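FIELD: query
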Amino acid sequence: EIAPSDWSSDVCSSDLCINAMIRHGMKYLKARARYVVGASGTPKQGCDCSGFIMQCLYSVGINPLPTSAVRHSKPGYEYESRQLFKNRKLKKVKLKNIKRGDLVFYGGGIVTHIAMYIGKGRCIESWPNRVCIMPLRSGIRGRILGVRRPLP
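FIELD: result
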């Protein structure tokens, strides 16, 4: 996948764009994309949790710089979910106000995982062996540390 050149919260502001982002994630699910640490490739190449989320964001024209697929592939940048969590361009949202397309961050004190909320108490994510759909709340990922909204 090719990343867009710049972040813009104006790129995509409707339910159509949220649906497009989720549809893009579903391509990885249907392809049974493998979990690959430090990867953010196509469904055939595989990805880890933050690489998967970056591809979903890229699919609707959002580039979450300084986090990028290129940087993510380099040693020491495997946990880009932490950088996405800190990205001020992503709006902080209370868990009780979660909506489809929101990003959910998990961990045991520090962020170690990211997923995308798709509604009805479920998330799509790359975990543990491949892209899958899991309940929003599940002890295997750690506790929910925060929610961020990439689209208005």
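FIELD: remark
The radius of gyration is 14 Å.
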